[in-house]
Amino acid sequence: METLSYQQQNEFEKMVIAGERTLEVNPDNVVVLISMAQAIPQRTREHDLDKDEKLGKAEGFATRAMKLIPNLAKFNPAIPDEDWAGYKKSAMSQVHEALGMVAFTRKNYPKAEESFKAASEVSPQPDPTTLYRLGMVYAAQNKHDEAIAAFDKATAAGGVKVGDRDLAAEQKALMVKAKAGAGAAKPAAPAAPPEVEIKRP
C-alpha cells in the first residue's frame, strides 16, 4: 500500500524504495512488480549514467510478473472466474506495455512495436495510452499509415489527455502533414515514453 500510495502522489524515488522493500519480503507481488516495471522506464532519461541498470531492473520486474500471472491465485475467492480472467489479461497487457517502454527507451523500436502490439491485443478493452505509445513507435520508424491508424484508435478509445489537449490527436495531425510532404518532420520520438498515469491491474 505504501508503494502504491507514493505512486499516486508521484513520489517516484520513495515509490521505488518502498517497492524494492516490498519485493524483498514478497518477490512475487505482481501488482508491485508491474508498477515498478512501468514506472522506471518513464523516469529513465537518455543520458542517465545508470540508464542500463535501471532498464535492466524494469525488464526483470516485468519478466518475473509475466511468469507469475498465468498461475496467479485469486485475491478473493468470491471473485467470479470471468472477472479474474479479465484481471489477468489486464495485468499481462500491462507487462507487455512495460517491456515496450523499456525497448522504447533503448530505441529498440521493432521490439517496442512488438510489445505494444501484444499489450493492445491481450487487453480486455482498447487502452488509449497503449495505442498512443504504439503510434509513437510507428512514427519513430516512419510508418505513417500505421501511426495514423494507431492514433485514431487511441482517440476513439478516449484519447490521451493532458489538460485540454489530446496528445494522440496532436501526433496524428503531425503524421498526416509528414505523410503529405507538407514540410513537417516526423514526430520526434521522445527519449523516454511520455509520462502518463500508470495503470494498475
Low-confidence stretches: 182-186, 188-193, 196-201
In percent, how much strand structure appears in the residues?
under 5%
Into which percent range does the helicity of residues fall? Answer: 55-70%
Number of helices: 9
The spatial strand order of the largest sheet comes to: 1-2
Question: What is the overall pLDDT average?
Answer: 88
Main sheet, how many strands, which sense, barrel?
2 strands, antiparallel
Helix-strand string:
HHHHHHHHEEH
| Distance from first to last alpha carbon | 14 Å
Radius of gyration: 17 Å
Structural class of the helix and strand makeup? mainly alpha
Net shape: globular
Q: How many E-type strands?
A: 2
Summary, kept brief:
The chain is built from 9 helices and 2 strands.
Report on this model:
With 201 residues, the protein is mainly α. It is 65% helix and 2% strand. A hairpin with a 2-residue loop joins strand 1 (161-162) and strand 2 (165-166). Helix 6 (109-122) packs antiparallel against helix 7 and helix 7 packs parallel to helix 9.
Task: Fill in the keyword field for this structure.
about 200 residues, mainly alpha, 9 helices, about 0% strand, disordered C terminus
